[in-house]
Amino acid sequence: MAASTYQSPWVRTIDLAQQWRRIRAWGRQPQRLRRLLAAYRTLLAAAPASIAYAFTLFVTWWTLRGTSDAFDRRLILSASTNLRNLQHDPIQVLVASAFWTEGGFPWSEILILLTFMALAERWLGSLRWILVVASGHICATLIVAVGIAHKVDKHLIPLRVTVAADVGPSYGISAMLAALAFRLRGPARWIWAAGLLLFYGAALWQGRTFTDYGHFFAVLIGFLIGGAAVVVSRRVLPLLRRSAPDRIGGRAGVDDGLVPLEEPDGGLDQARGDRPEHRHH
C-alpha cells in the first residue's frame, strides 16, 4: 500500500461525543450482553501485553500468599528500587520491581490493566505500549532515587529510607494514563490531562511521600512522551516519507509500525463477526 494510506497511531484521535453516540446506538440493538462480551474479548485479543502484565501480577501475589511474612518481606525488599539495590544491581531491580506488589490482592492495578491499559495497547500497539510503560516506570524511579539521595546527603530524611520497600506497576500505569490524553480530541484531551494533574497533585500535596512524587513525575513523563511522539508523527515522519519513499513508504506496514487511517469503531462493531486488522510491531 502507498505510504499516504498510513498514519501513526499517535495522531489517530477519537471524539468522545461521537463515540458516545455510537455506543448509545449500539446499546439499542438486541443481545447487548452477548455483543458486549464479544467486544471485550476482541479488545483483550488486541492487548496481549496488558493481559500478560495482569497475569504476572496475579502470579507474584499468589507466590507471596503462600510464604511466610518474613520471607515476603525479604523478597519484596530484594526487588525494591531503593538506593541500596539501585547501587548494587540497578537493572535487575528496575525490571523486577514492576512485577511485585505489597499488601493484598492488586485489584486496582489488574482492573486498570484490563480496561484503560488494554485500550491504550489497542490504540498504540504492544511495542509502543511497552516502551511508554517501561519509560514511565524507569524514569520516575530514577528521578525519585536522585531526590532521595540528595535529601539523605543533606540529612533532610532518615537513612533508613535508602533501604525502604518500593515495588509495583503504578509508575508505568500513571505514565500510560497520561499518554492516553493524546488519544482524545478537543476539550476532552485537556479535561483528561487536567483531571490527572489534579488527582496526582492532590495526592502529592496530602502525602508528600517519595511514592507520591514518583506518581506525579510519571504523569509528567507520560505527557512528555505523548507530546514528543505526536510532534514526530506529524512533522518528522512526513518529511522522512517524502525524502525516502522507497525505504519508508514501501515497508510501512512491516517495519515502522504504522497503521491504516481507518480503524474499527471502538471494538463494538467487532461483535458482529468482523475481525480487527492484524498489526505487526
TrEMBL record:
Parts of the chain that traverse the membrane: 38-64, 104-120, 127-149, 161-182, 189-207, 213-232
Protein name: Rhomboid family intramembrane serine protease
Record key words, sorted: Membrane, Transmembrane, Transmembrane helix
Source taxon at top rank: Bacteria
Lineage of the species this protein comes from: Bacteria, Bacillati, Actinomycetota, Actinomycetes, Mycobacteriales
Basic and acidic residues: bias regions: 271-281
Segments for region (Disordered): 255-281
Pfam families (UniProt xref): Rhomboid_2 (PF20401)
